[in-house]
Structures are given as C-alpha cells and as structure tokens.
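Exercise (ungraded).
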Amino acid sequence: MSNVSISEVTKNGLWTNNPALVQLLGLCPLLAVTGTVVNALGLGLATMMVLIGSNVIVSLIRRHVGDAVRLPVFVIIIATFVTCAELLMKAYTYELYQILGIFIPLIVTNCAILGRAEAFASKQPVGMAALDGIMMGLGFLFVLLMLGGLRELLGQGTLFADMHLLFGPMANSWTIAPFGENYSFLIAVLPPGAFLVMGFLMAIKNAIDWQIKLRADAVKPDPVKGAKRIRTTGNIS
Amino acid sequence: MIFQSMGKNSLLLALFALITALILASTDRVTEDRIAESERLAAQKALFEIVPLALHNNDLLVDLQPIPEQYWLALGLDNGGDVHIARLDDQPVAAIVPSITTDGYSGDIAMIVGINFDGTVAGVRVVDHKETPGLGDKVELRKSDWILSFNGKSLNNPEISKWNVKKDRGDFDQFTGATITPKAVIHQIAKTLEYFEKDRERLLSAINFSDNPSLGEQAYNE
C-alpha cells in the first residue's frame, strides 16, 4: 500500500475503483441532483474541491494524530472544507446554491470523502494524496456529468440548459434542444430515472471490463493438448 | 499513562477545533457582504420582473408594510409577511403581496402577487414549489408563460366564479395532465386579490418607511 505508482492512483480513481460506479459511494447526492448538467457540474466540482482539500490536510497531519482521535479529526477537517465550499457557492453562484440546496452541506456525509481520507490519504505522502483526491474527484464528477447529461437529454430534451448559473451571462446561449421545444419524458427526470440511468452506466462499465478481460485472455497461449495431468484425489501424504 | 494520552488527545482535538473555527470565521467574514448582496439581488430580481424599474423609483426591498394578522390565514402565511410597495415619485403604484397555497399537488406553492392600486394584477411569480417536473412545474415562467395570463385581470374581470380552470368552467387554462396545480394557483391569486381589496386603503395611505425609518417604527408601534 505504501508504494503506489502515479498511473495506478490515476487508473483507480477514474476507472477500476471509481467512487460512484464501483464503490457506489455518495449515491444520495449523486442520484438526487443529477437532473441537469449544470446541477451535476456544480455538485461534482464542490465535491472534488472538498476531496482534494481534505486529502491534502489529512496527509499532512498523518504522523501527528493518533488512532484514538483520528476519525473525529478527519470529520472536523472535512466539515470545515464543506462549509467553506458552501459559503463560497452562496457568495458567487447563489442561484445554483439554491437549486442544490441541502446537498451541498450533505457532502460532509459523502462516504467517498471520509473513505479516501481513512484508506488512502492517512497512509500516503502529500503529493500522492492530492493526486488521489483529484482522480477520485474527477471520477465522481465524470459519472455525475454522464448521469446529468443523459437524464437532461432524455427527460427534458435539452443539454446544457441554465449553464449561466455557473458561468454567467455568456453561457445563456449554450442550451441545445435536439428534439425540439416541447419534448419531455417524465420518468428520466424523476428519481426512478436516476436509478435506471445509473444502472445502465454500471452495466456499460462492466461490459467494457468484460471485453477487456476477454481480449486479454485471447492473447494468452492455449494450454497444450494432451498435457499430463496429475490425479489429486485420495490421500496424499 | 492513560491520563497522559487522554490529555494529549483532547488537547489535539481542541487545537483542531480551534484552527478550523478560525478558518470558518474568516471565510464567513470574507464572503459575508457578497452573500448578503447575492440574496438581495435574488429577492430583487423577482420583484423587478413584476414591477419593472420604469414604473417605480423607490427601493422596493425596504419599502415594506407588515400584513395584519387577521389576513395571515387567507394568504397562507404562518409567520406573517410584508407587502412591498412600489412608488413612482412617492405615489404608490403597486403592491407586491407574498402568498402561499397548500392546495398544490405536493407541498406548498409560494408566490408573490403584484397588484396595481387600481386592483388589476401587475404580475405573478411562483418563487418556490415542489410540483411534478414536466407537469405541474409549468407555473414557472421559464417552463411556460401560463403565469402571464393573469396580468391585467382583476376580481371583476373575470367575475369571481370564473377564477377557475376551464375544465371547471373557469377562464384559465389547465395543463395537460395537471389540473390540481393550476387550480391551486388560480384560487390563491383570487384570495390575494380579495385581501388587497380589504387592505387597500391602509396600504395606499401608508407612509414610505424607507425614507424615514424612525417614523416607520413609530407608526408600527402605534
């Protein structure tokens, strides 16, 4: 565990151990706010900031905090970062903050963050911890964006609606409505749609992993036919 | 030995609590003004949509009249509220009344109703609701311009029995697949207009508190 490579950390966060698709952590905000791309992006960026910040600080103090108070200290650190993120969002993206509402303070309870602090950052040097924060955050953000994009497209037939909440007036014209103005498919916007789309995303990821495994197996040489086998039943003494 | 480690750990925790409290306090201090400004702008935006700047030149946000307690029930305000008064050169032009209906499909629908002093609707905006996306949320202006169909209407135009959805022989459109939501909004607007009729004289003669806060306090205490 102490000797992990940069590529391993990157691959873990983005794919193999993706916090949303594989570890299934932080599902509550993940499913609740991914009705549109802008919501997903807002929550994803906030989560990523908190994750990087908490990973770095936890790694910095890892030698000074004993086992007995480790978890309370981690929670204090995470809660501080979340509250700062909340205040900043309230100050600079107030309307988005109003839409995301309770899910910003709820980042504190996203187990992905405490999980990374405990399982990774508390045992690794600062650089690695920061990289892990970035990669895990990106992995989470990526899934949020996929969910948000798919649900927005399927549900209300638009993509990048209301992006001005995050990017200011210049984003007013970013909305795309490929199916025309009056399209809507209710279930994708409602909570069941979140579960359905999430399920399909996980299935697609598993299918890709399966294909990769099949290909890797195909490269391996076939076992030679007629090779001698050893009988292993009975008592071997 | 155990006391030593307890002491060390609690000191450590206290130290962390102190540092993080300091960080939070300074972030709060830095963002405080900016947040107040954002909140003010957000509140102002809805008010300006109803009574545009061209029609008034006072500070809508602070020109307030508290709503008397006997009207709270009709307006659905559990904790009371204030009417914003729009004035052009000190002449009252319109009143913006907060109003909440509990008859929606899911949860409360909170709106602000702007009423010109001649009794016609200046504009209505739904500010908060939990109606079904795609069906009931057409009460929002960004989803549908249905909410604009109240502009210019008053208690006698159409007559009170026509303040209903077309399905119930009223004058206003319902939404495809959603009747409860528009019905709740229509009825609440009618109730708000009725409140305004009763409280109109008081609001019309109300002094502009914002120019002279001490005077306002005095009047309120009386």
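Further reading is listed at the end of the chapter. For now, observe: Strands of chain B lie at 64-66, 82-88, 91-101, 109-116, 121-128. The interface with chain A takes residues 5, 8-9, 12-13, 16-17, 20, 23-24, 27-28, 31, 34-35, 38-39, 41-42, 132-135 of chain B (CB under 8 Å).
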